[in-house]
Amino acid sequence: MAKYLLLKHYRGAPAPVNDVPMDQWAPDEVEAHFKFMNDFAARLEDSGEFVDGQALSPDGAWVRSDGEGRPPVTDGPFAETKDLIAGWMVIDVDGYERAVELAGELSAAPGAGGDPIHEWLEVRPFLAHPPTVTD
Amino acid sequence: MDDVELRELVPQVLSVLVRRGADFATAEDAVQEALVRALSAWEDELPSDPLAWLVTVSWRAFVDLARSDAARRDREVRFDTSPPTEVVPSADDTLQLYFLCAHPELTPSSAVALTLRAVGGLTTRQIAQAYLVPESTMAQRISRAKRTVGRAGLDRPGDVRTVMRVLYLVFNEGYSGDVDLAAEAIRLTGQLAATVDDPEVDGLLALMLLHHARRGSRTGADGRIVPLKEQDRGEWNTELIAEGIGILQAALGRDQLGEYQAQAAIASLHADAPRVEDTDWVQIVEWYDELLRFADTPIVRLNRAVAVGEADGAPAGLAALADVDEHIPRRDAVAAHLHEKNGDLELAARLYADAAKNAPNLPERDHQTRQAARLNQMLRQHR
User: Fold this and answer.
1) Residues of chain B neighbouring A27 (CB-CB closer than 8 A)
2) Cα–Cα distance between B162 and B166 in angstroms, integer?
3) Mutant choice from B370, B371, B375, B379 vs A, greatest count of A C-beta within 10 A
4) pLDDT at B174
5) What's the whole-model pTM score?
6) Is A59 in contact with B377 (Cβ distance < 8 A)?
7) Residue among A23, A31, A57 minimizing CB distance to B372
8) What is the pLDDT of residues B357-377, one digit of tens each?
9) Residues from chain B contacting residue A113 (CB–CB below 8 Å)
10) So what's the pLDDT on residue B203?
11) What pLDDT score does B382 carry?
12) How far is A59 from chain B, CA to nearest CA, in Å?
């Protein structure tokens, strides 16, 4: 098994095919989307492939140390152009192909007009623990 | 004896041990160990005096723990190793234990964890599950908290206000894992109310009962938020409401009003209305004005603006909202609601969309998105 991170972006990813803001969808399209997302997570829990999923607020800032005895420097809230992560799902699957397959399904969540959104998700393998047998 | 009845004995046992000279941190571990033993030893037959049994077993566990600790540190042990013969826990000691766990030197998250363990008798694993953190993290948090308060001892004068804040935090965490934190907060607040003579503690207990009574109707099957006006009032727990109102009325009769009693009064006016249109909004606004005297916070002002909007109409509500800090959570949502009520659907739809963007949790984000989508659809149909 291998762990993968599926990353969803508020900003910074290429534009999805069906790119209409959610508040402009018909109410039943919104419901269909929420249901799809719930069902997707439930299905992965069922199959034993779900590890964790969290959503992030768009708020936040860059922070770095400004030296001893001084408060850290912050830069934020984030400017409009920055790459901005919206949330993630961690999955534990047999391999890269399965991770891509699942990200593809998630990307096809229904959107405006009931059509798939086709949004871009980032799929990133975890750097795993070293194996017991190496030679 | 069920799990809750067993845990009710925890603060009494712990305070007997501490009174007898045990250090708080070790005594607390010893009580937890005795609880685990009680679960299996009592399966077939209850001891005639469960409290005395727990004290004896806890004291033995304490002696063992203290000895091995002393051996490890190459120190002498100086305390009475014979089990206590007399068990006289006092309400005062239980109260001191509450104070200790809500010690002002503790961070809120540490005070919450320590209260749930040392007063509530929950295991570290249960507390970790409830707060969705690893068990090792919670164990560290609790042991650091114990070290902090261990220096304070059981005799310092306490502040019941800090205890109430901790219990309120526990209540607001609601439910996750196999422990119902809201129910646990109610139990601990009830225990506190029985120990201390303070109408504010009764007010807090009433507030919790009145909110708890509506819990089932606040979320739909898929976790969605059901707003107050759409809740099925037939699902509200009338027994809890009656209990909460009874406690509140007795507290108010003592004429020492405070923040929690005022909040409970507002909750009782909602709980008392058989239909949403029966809600006495004028009185609710009056209670918000009282509440402002004790807690003039942006959140109270925000909620007051909603009530004013219902009592005196949307323009009055919007005027009240103008005084509220622009940067507090949910302000957009309240503004959206008041503008919708005022007939400005386009502005309301935009504000609902903003509210969704700034929502502090997912159910609220989904809820505000639904509101925006609903209004935008109406606007499209009227164009």
Assistant:
1) 370, 373-374, 377
2) 6
3) B370
4) 67
5) 0.90
6) no
7) A23
8) 999 889 999 999 999 999 999
9) none
10) 98
11) 84
12) 8
Q: Contact B370/A27, CB-based, under 8 Å? A: yes
Q: What is the layout of strands, in order, in the sheet containing A2-11?
A: A50-55, A84-93, A2-11, A122-125
As given in the structure block, the two tokens for residue A77 are 């809230």
**Which of A22, A27, A38 has its CB closest to that of B222?**
A38
Confidence band of B71 (pLDDT split at 50, 70, 90): confident
pLDDT at B90 over 80: no
Question: In the 3-class helix/strand/coil scheme, how is chain B assigned residue by residue?
Answer: CCHHHHHHCHHHHHHHHHHCCCCHHHHHHHHHHHHHHHHHHCCCCCCCCHHHHHHHHHHHHHHHHHHHHHHHCCCCCCCCCCCCCCCCCCHHHHHHHHHHHCCCCCCHHHHHHHHHHHHCCCCHHHHHHHCCCCHHHHHHHHHHHHHHHHCCCCCCCCCHHHHHHHHHHHHHHCEECCEEHHHHHHHHHHHHHHHCCCHHHHHHHHHHHHHHCCHHHHECCCCCECCHHHCCHHHCCHHHHHHHHHHHHHHHCCCCCCHHHHHHHHHHHHHHCCCHHHCCHHHHHHHHHHHHHHCCCHHHHHHHHHHHHHHHCHHHHHHHHCCCCCCCCCHHHHHHHHHHHCCCHHHHHHHHHHHHHCCCCHHHHHHHHHHHHHHHHHHHHHC
How does residue A80 score in pLDDT terms, banded at 50, 70 and 90?
A: confident
Q: Which residue has the higher pLDDT, B158 or A10?
A: A10
Q: Which of B349, B352, B374 sits opposite A27 (nearest CB)?
A: B374
